[in-house]
Amino acid sequence: MGSVTLNNVTKTFGQLSVIHDVSLQIEEGEFCVLVGPSGSGKSTLLRIIAGLEAVSSGQVMIGGRDVTTLPPKHRDIAMVFQTYALYPQMTVRENMGFALKLAGVPKPEIARKVAETAEMLELGALLDRLPKELSGGQRQRVSMGRAIVRNPSVFLFDEPLSNLDAKLRSQVRGEIADLHRRLSTTSVYVTHDQIEAMTLGQKIVVLKDGRVEQAGAPLELYEKPVNTFVAGFLGTPSINLLRTKAQVSEEGKFAVFENGAKVRLDPAYEVGNGQDLVYGIRPEHVRLSGGAEAGGIPARVHSVENTGSDMVVFSDAGPLRITAAFKEQRNIAPGEAITLTPDLAKAHIFDAATSKRIPALS
To answer: Ranges for the ABC transporter domain (predicted)?
Structure first.
């Protein structure tokens, strides 16, 4: 196994700079997810680690070894692609053992490793089939098996679930998590799906425009996002980010919304009277009630989504659109007058000018 270290990595294509001075430490055995919107640079960063893209400047280290100028075959990595990349004329057995064959591994050893890996991935009955005879989920498991038999220092996953339907994505996601628990191999996983990021990652790296916005444990990023971008990118349904002004008086500190509603702020926030803020509150931290309520935001229901296990209520509070989410089933109809009350202890306060989080000082 090996750690992965990026030191001041930059990548340009002509005049276009796509990775900007990225430094990152991925510990040995860690499952790290690179997440961000399209064009954020996550796939380019993965290709740089793999050696499929050369850095313009900076250093790439794997297992404490400088691999910046080494080709992929000398980096001791294995990659699982979005498109499976299986040889159509080869059986599952041949696909899984092909890299070992090229490396000159004896046939009995290849057979043993392929059989062990096939059993782990429940592919034993499929070893003599061609890729065209497999489902999408089975093909992806073969692709993973081909990587596993090589016993690399680092696994690299490039959006491996994006071609699968929702049910299969959930199933294969669980298989990947289980594999990591068994093998404890350092893994770097690229996705734009925040659910994959939150459920698989021991470390999440949020990228935007080729820069690292924040890196850390999933709950750390969810509960303490450094800016409005990270807050808005993680979480389903998305966090409510509402423009407000701070009001500071002898009565305390408040956030005053565009519709005139006023919500108390933790006095530990360092905000000035009249300061423009962004008030962040996640939908699951908004309580919904009928009629007026002190400290709440009067609103009217716009629409309701009911998935059976969850209810999501979208409401209008003057110019504001506020989302609330909860588990219990309630009889709520569009047009109904309601009051939304944020959990004050769960609020996130950001400076509107910089979009950066304002910490509550103890």
So the answer is: 4-234
Backbone angles phi, psi at 231, to 5 degrees: -60, -40
User: Tell me: the pLDDT tens digits for 228-283?
Assistant: 999 999 998 999 999 999 999 999 999 999 888 999 999 999 999 999 999 999 99
Q: Reduce the secondary structure of 54-113 to three states and give it as a string.
A: CCCEEEEEECCEECCCCCHHHCCEEEECCCCCCCCCCCHHHHHHHHHHHCCCCHHHHHHH
Classified as helix, coil or strand, 131 is: helix
Q: How far is CA 221 from CA 144, 204, 212, in A?
A: 29, 8, 13
Token reading at 7 = 């030191």
Alpha-carbon distance 226 to 50, whole Å? 29
Find residue 61's DSSP bridge partners.
5, 66
pTM: 0.91
DSSP string of 197-219, one letter each residue = HHHH-SEEEEEETTEEEEEE-HH
User: Is 34:192 a contact under the CB 8 Å cutoff?
Assistant: no
Q: Picking from 169-183, 311-325, 339-353, which range would have the lowest pLDDT averaged per residue?
A: 169-183
At 303, the amino acid letter reads S
Beta strands in the chain (DSSP E): 4-13, 16-26, 31-35, 57-62, 65-66, 77-80, 154-158, 186-191, 203-208, 211-216, 240-249, 252-257, 262-265, 276-281, 286-290, 297-306, 311-317, 320-326, 337-342, 348-351
Prior bond to 237 cis, omega within 30?
A: yes
DSSP, collapsed to helix, strand or coil, labels residue 12 as strand
Tell me the pLDDT tens digit for each residue of 192-214: 888 899 999 999 999 999 999 99
Q: How far apart are CA 319 and CA 40, in angstroms?
A: 31
Where do we find the tokens 């509550």?
360
Backbone angle region of 251, left / alpha / beta, with phi > 0 → left and psi within -120 to 50 → alpha: alpha
